[in-house]
Amino acid sequence: MAMESLNFFKGYGKVNPLPGDQSPYQQKSTASKRLILIISVSSILFFTLILALALAVLTRDQSNTEPDESPSLASSNSAESIKTVCGVTQNPSSCFTSISSLNISTKPDPEVIFKLSLKVSITELKHLSSLFTSLHDVNSQAAMRDCVSQFDDSLGKLNDSLLAMEVGPGEKMLTLEKVKDIQTWISAAMTDQDTCIDGLEETGSVLPDEMKATMERSKDFLSISLAIISKMEALLEKFDLKMH
């Protein structure tokens, strides 16, 4: 009994440690680990935020410097624009080949492409006129002179068309009134060629193959220009443009 009392007093005031309790050293070690973990996570979040901000700034700068891409034909390349315009003609292949062979420094719109088609028509008509001038056939001299006169008249009308499209900076090359005038002039130029052919047939003149081929090309190019100017308003709409 005395021994039990002594043991009781020896254990008085002491608390048996629970399994989950830790010593001060262990608590300090755990706190340090938690602090290190918090600092590590905070650092990762901080650098992630910095990286996200940097990417946002870079993306914004690129969007400001790069040109806007539009699905409209106005932003398409020259070949696509020419094909679209030539698509309204009866001979798209000849139209595309003749116009795309010219030196085009900018992305052309329908007005520019039409102007180029006129230049092709003028070049071919000048070549045709020179062939008739150089041909010396006594039996058809009068008819040949009439043809050259008709060609000169046609060239005058085509040059008037080009002159009508010469405008100042920021001005539109074509208006509804100009389109009607140019249609009339090109139609008249085509009539001049028909008059030439009628005169040759009446005199029984036989043209060399080269002259026949050149005349056919000239008529083809004139019909191309006429088709484009006739559809100009619709073509401009395809390019998100308007006629004044």
Automatic annotation (TrEMBL):
Superkingdom in the source lineage: Eukaryota
Keywords: Disulfide bond, Glycoprotein, Membrane, Signal, Transmembrane, Transmembrane helix
TM region positions: 35-58
Pfam families registered for this protein in UniProt: PMEI
SUPFAM superfamilies: Plant invertase/pectin methylesterase inhibitor
Recorded GO MF terms: enzyme inhibitor activity; pectinesterase activity
Lipid metabolism among keywords: no
EC number, as in UniProt: 3.1.1.11
Domain spans labelled Pectinesterase inhibitor: 77-228
Enzyme superclass (EC): hydrolase
Entry similarity comment: In the N-terminal section; belongs to the PMEI family. Belongs to the PMEI family.
This protein's name: pectinesterase
Organism per entry: Salix brachista
